[in-house]
Amino acid sequence: xxxxxxxxxxxxxxxxxxxxxxxxxxxxxxxxxxxxxxxxxxxxxxxxxxxxxxxxxxxxxxxxxxxxxxxxxxxxxxxxxxxxxxxxxxxxxxxxxxxxxxxxxxxxxxxxxxxxxxxxxxxxxxxxxxxxxxxxxxxxxxxxxxxxxxxxxx
Length: 154
Prior knowledge:
Shape: globular
Largest sheet: 6 strands, mixed
Distance between the termini: 25 Å
Low-confidence stretches: 124-154
Helix content: 25-40%
Mean pLDDT: 76
Order of helices and strands: EEEHEHEHHEH
């Protein structure tokens, strides 16, 4: 299910550029002048370390990332399980915003993380960022359509 929630004002904003081996993470916390940049490998230990870093802020956390193959799934799952809000950024919206902000097609992992952070900060929740929640009807299998559920129950 998708919703068009805006970004809470007091939240820690986390932009993650996903890659196969390592993820570029950019953290912006309210009241801090500088952003924190981390490189997080795609391992459980590194994901746990990132979760500890984010929990240390003691504020709500909103994480945004662009889906990249299946590489985003483990870290997205771990962040959602830790209780953080996880948002998926549209690839097209990210590319168009990057082009508008930097006036070029030049692409890099740190630049993509900066653009995602800008999109979170701008609270552009309606069309370019999709919030994924754990809201589904009880008893309904994941990934099933309403037609297949009705057909199976008949």
